[in-house]
Write the structure tokens for this entry.
Amino acid sequence: MEETKFKSGFVTLIGRTNVGKSTLLNLLVGEKVAAIANKVQTTRTAIKGIVNRPNSQIIFTDTPGIHKPKTKLNETMIETSFSSIPDSDIILFLIEATSKEIGKGDQIILNKIKEAKRKTILIINKIDLVKRETLLNLIDIYRKEYNFEEVIPISAINNKYKEIILDEIEKNLEPGPVYYDTEEYTDQTLRQLAEETIREKALKLLQDEVPHGIYVEVEKMKERNNKHKEKIYDIEATIYCLRESHKGIIIGKNGEMLKKIGKSARLDMEENFGIKINLKTWVKVNPDWQSKDSVVNKFKLK
């Protein structure tokens, strides 16, 4: 009997903003590596998630959603998305089941995929929102445009699709080495994960009151033992926003909103990092951070 060859490769998730890429990445990886908030532009940089299976290692990159750029930051985000296509072994192209046709944003992505001639799996998300006939019609439209390896209709919040997608990816991978330690699930540093977590909680709790004009910077991250000899991380982070009025909203009456953001982020990090966290957060105004190279460069694909 022939021995099964170990496979590995890099898979890029790409799609328009708010289509569910980060939710899908977290489902596939089984850990919380991408910030999820039900808003556009949650993912600002390309985040890697790693899935280790008995016969394969799959390295995922979640890219910023494709949208019309208005700032230097937006341009960098789109550049990051497209630059990851040619380096992928497989592309997961995520679209919404509610689409009636190929929209402008999806067409741009499709053109980039055609240029790169990459193996692509089309994932149609949010199928619970449409009738079967609408879905079949959409599949037909996309099948005529590109020779997809497979078309998989899903709901990214339903765990039953996880193995279906992973099996299909593994089937299309070439034999390859183990790139990362099999205990790892992301190549992000704890500092980056902390920043992502705080930003996600801020976006979720603030609803539509503060737009996406915030970014988080962890200034201090230090491990120590507390008086009970337990390991604890001291984390100090600043939430930057664009306007003084936004600062007031983020802090909230008597500092209540900032406390909520901090508590929610701390509990999440303690669960994810498996260690006690002592988190302190501040809010500062930086009106033109979206145009500053020093900040924007952080969101470039490394």
Notes: The chain is about 35% helix and 25% strand.
